[in-house]
Structure formats: C-alpha cells, structure tokens
Amino acid sequence: MNSKYIEAILVLFEQITFLIAYTVNVKLKNITMKKYKQFIFIGILTILTLSFSKKSIAHCEIPCGIYEDTLRIELIKEHITTIEKSMKMILELSNDEEPNYNQIVRWVNNKEDHANKLQDIVGQYFLNQRIKPVEPASDKYQKYIKQLSLLHELLVYSMKAKQTTDLLYTEKLRTTILAFEKDYFHTHKH
I want to staple 161 with a disulfide (CB 3.0 to 4.6 A). Which of 81, 108, 155, 169 is the partner? Predict the structure, then answer.
C-alpha cells in the first residue's frame, strides 16, 4: 500500500473525528491525545481490514499458464471428506443429551465453508479456465458435454450438502469427482 493512500486515510479520519466531536457537542481538546490516537488507529485498522477482505478465488484468470489439475482434484476430494466429517459431527452433537449449540454452529459453518471452496474450484478453476468450449460438430463435443454435466453435478451436490446432513450427498460428490477425474485425465488411444 502506498503512503498517499495511508495519508488520505489519516486525513479522512481526522475530519471524521472533528465531525463527531462537533456533532456530540464535545470540544476536541476534551478528548485526550491518547484516546484520539486510539480512535485513529482503530479506524485505520478497520479500513485496512475491509480493503483487503476480498473473497479469494481458486486461481488467476490472466491466464498465467500455471495449472495443477491433479492438485485441484485432490483438494475437491479433501473438501468432500471435510464436509462428510462436519455432517457426522453435526449429527453426533445434535443427538447429545445436552447439545452444545456453539459446536454445532461451528461444524455447520465448516461444512458451508468447504462446500463453497469446492464450488469455487469447480467454477473458477475448471469451468472458467480448464474446460474449453467445443463446437457441436467436433468429435470432442460429447466429452465436453460429459465434463460439463459432471461439474454441474458437483455444484448441485455441494449445494445440497450445505442444505442438509444427509451423507448421501457426500457419496454422490465422491462418485462424481471420481467420474470427472477419470474422464478428464483419460486419454484413449487406438
């Protein structure tokens, strides 16, 4: 971050501080310098946090030419395993005599987070960057349609996994990623 940006933030917070002091009918000199500096620091920290808290994506779209397809497949498999573990923990904790709702919420959030990450890899990495459109007349068109269908299934099953604790969806996810992996990497030569 350049110094002009930081200076602009400092000026903005100084103006906001004066406005607040005037609005609540408090003279700026009544605010101790220590509290003033704390206010400025917290404000800058807040702006910096909000500035850098953008959603990360699975890979760039420059294109950089750096692709690791097998890694992405393994990450998807790991997310499926984590979703499954989360579902099992939610069910186990919910059946306790005195359910620990804080832990249940944490496992639900974990399940959601990993389903979202799975969807990001499928969308951002495979659909946007790796699976290239093919003309219907091409001999590769059927493979293209099959891969699109399998990726779409992954998106739908991960959405369903967010909505429920039914382990059927983790099995469907697992079966689908294996089918996609086989089709994606399989090169049949006759």
Answer: 169
3-12, 19-28, 147-156: least confidently modelled range: 19-28
Rounded to an integer, what distance in angstroms lies between the CA atom of residue 92 and that of residue 90?
6
Q: Which two tokens stand for residue 33?
A: 């310098």
Indicate the domain borders of the chain: 3-52, 69-185
Tokens 């944490």 -> residue = 106
Please write the tens of the pLDDT for every residue from 156-181: 999 999 999 999 999 999 999 999 99
Distance, in Å, from the CA atom of 115 to the CA atom of 154, rounded to the nearest integer, reads 10
Q: 3-state DSSP call for residue 29? A: helix
DSSP string, 65-87: ----HHHHHHHHHHHHHHHHHHH
Q: What is the DSSP letter of 25?
A: T
Q: Which fold has domain 69-185?
A: Four Helix Bundle (Hemerythrin (Met), subunit A) (1.20.120)
